[in-house]
Amino acid sequence: MAGVVPTKGNLMALGRTLTLARMGYDLMDRKRNILIREMMRLIDAAAALQGRIDSTFAEAYRALQTANIALGTCQDLARSMPLDSSVQIRFRSVMGVEIPYVTADESPPSAPLGFVSTTSDFDRAVAHFFKVKRLITELAEVETATYRLAYAIKKTQKRANALQNVIIPDLTAKVNFIAGALEEKEREEFVRMKVIKARG
Fold first, then answer.
1. Which helix (H) or strand (E) holds 77?
2. Most buried of 17, 69, 112, 173 (most Cβ within 10 A)?
3. Domain spans of the chain, in order of start
């Protein structure tokens, strides 16, 4: 092999590197499996959330239609509702992958409107859309986490493949080459010593 000097020092150094590469592959494989497990859990949660969001949206629009029928139009009332800035994003780490953790205010908003200008239908529509907002923040958290995990799994898979298919075989071939060359040198030395003894 070109560029590889067959010495015991090189054999020991390459042996250590090969051991580290195998340990690195095992760790990458474990990491990939843990990330896949976490992603599958999140995919199931996303599917369940999507169903809940669809049904809650349907209820919210029905309530909005009823409120529109009762009040004529809810556009002006909707504009007077305060903006919600309670959504906060924090992060947690799963095997070095930053996963978002989204929190929002759990209490429904209090409308700054009097009893004269609204009806219970409008209040019901507000409550339903508040549920939709809460479910959407949960879904955003789950979907973002799923995409980040999928990207991390892809990256980990590439690294594991590089270790398994390129680096480890290359190091193994170099170790075998050096070990073979050293054995050949030892045999030559042994034969030379026998020849010297036979002459002497």
1. helix 75-79
2. 17
3. 8-199
